[in-house]
Design brief:
Elements (H helix, E strand, L loop, with lengths): L11 E4 L5 H11 L3 E6 L18 H6 L4 E4 L5 H12 L3 E4 L5 H5 L3 H5 L6 E6 L14 H7 L2 H4 L14 H24 L4 E5 H9 L1 H9 L16 E5 L4 E5 L3 H10 L3 H5 L6 H6 L1 H12 L4 H10 L4 E3 L3 H6 L1 H6 L2 E6 L3 E6 L25 H7 L4 H9 L4
Parallel strand pairs: 1-2, 1-4, 2-3, 4-5, 5-6
Antiparallel strand pairs: 7-8, 8-9, 10-11
Length: about 400
Amino acid sequence: MSESRLPLEGYNVIDLTAHRAGPTAVRQLADWGANVIKIEAPSSISNDKGSLIGSRHGSDFQNLHRNKRSLTLNLKTEEGKAVFFDLAKKSDIIVENFRSAVKFRLGIDYDSIRKVNSRIIYGSIAGFGQTGPYGKRPGVDQIAQGMGGLMSITGLPGQGPVRVGIPICDLTAGIFLAQGILLALIDREKTGEGQWVHTSLLESIIQMLDFQGSRWLIKGEVAPQAGNNHPTGTPTGVFPTSDGHINIAAAGTNLFDRMSDAMNADDLASDERFRTGEGRTENREEVNERISVYTKTKTSDEWIDILNEAGVPCGPIYTIDQVFQNEQVQHLGIAKTVHHKNLGTMKVVGQALNMTATPQPDTLRMATPELGEHTDDILAELGYDNDKIASLHGADIV
């Protein structure tokens, strides 16, 4: 267990999340020092298979749920809810990603919690929002990718809809919710009161559309698929080399001229059709073909050195194993070590944010807990004596 000081130390979080979006939000809080209690159903009513993210000892589950403690609790019973409310009275944050109606059915929604703790910050993620015509629909990442327009602009022109290779709606919703929770903590310093913070997979991916969304809202342009090419800037894309492929980003005229000079491509620099960004995009196919004639003459590494030296962004296209073997990635130290009592020492994906006074430790504080690993400790912290804890176990409440 690392002893490094972290900025969210002292904040208590109840984690009611499952799948990916909610756990992503909680991971942001846990990694930065919050005391997170993950509430899970007791083994008597749960098969503990890890749901959509695989088994508990699998890489996905281990990466998502580190830096937490696990409390088993049956929230469908009055005794279990009583324990939950005892925790809520002492907590700062609750995070859930049930379908929107579930928390109300269980009686653990924001208004119910606020009655016993007005300072609580209650974070929620749903598929499509907490209310509205789709508010009660189940939502998962790929459905949101399609509904949010992302699949219509991903892939090669004419290919048909293509999903992004990561669960991007889940991940962005989780990160946005964590940001909202931190904003609510700042606001609580001014008001003394908590609030309900919520987002959805759909809202998150629409915000991530960014300039593609504004093209429609401001200019009425419906973005098509552009494949590996930048949708509006040419040339930016994938080009063949003598031993593979590289990315080149030379969309601005200054960058285009630098690239042409570095390639000794006088025919590119002198072609009047390519002198403006609009002209290059209008003639994108020919521009790319002409550049490819040059890039095929050298290796990927040679072009990466030549073009970066000329101030033209250029880089390799790695497989995942190559990413983590790369010298810059290793220098950044984003793969973090964690020690698991049953699985041994492993690496997980760390945080992208760097802080000078409170950095992420090289070794994470805690590995993903076993189911109910900390149940008795957490109950004792609430002031429950041994007889009370035994009775809760005997009744399958915990």
